[in-house]
Amino acid sequence: MVKFELESGEQLHAEAPDTFWIPPLDARQSLSSGDIVKLVFRIEEDGEVNVERMWVVVQKATTEGYVGLLDNDPYCTDRIQAGLELEFAPKHIIDIYADD
Prior knowledge:
- This protein is mainly beta.
- The protein is built from two helices and six strands.
- Strands 1, 2, 3, 4, 5 and 6 form a six-stranded antiparallel β-sheet that branches.
- It comes from Aliidiomarina sedimenti.
């Protein structure tokens, strides 16, 4: 069995503010459908835990945050794949993709 939870980017930043940057709160709270964000996934499968940073495409905003679709496959398992729908909050966002 495989399960995952999202790490709080805000907590990671608070623990190491000089080395773990996250986007400003207003940017994390004002995303639109189609925006791409990076989240930290803590994945547990058969007693083994792996942490991966992966991109998620925002589908819609909700009262608690967002619903998005995973945009890539994790390296540690094939039981989670791109296209997985998940809910997340602004606190989980560690990066916002900018097409410069």
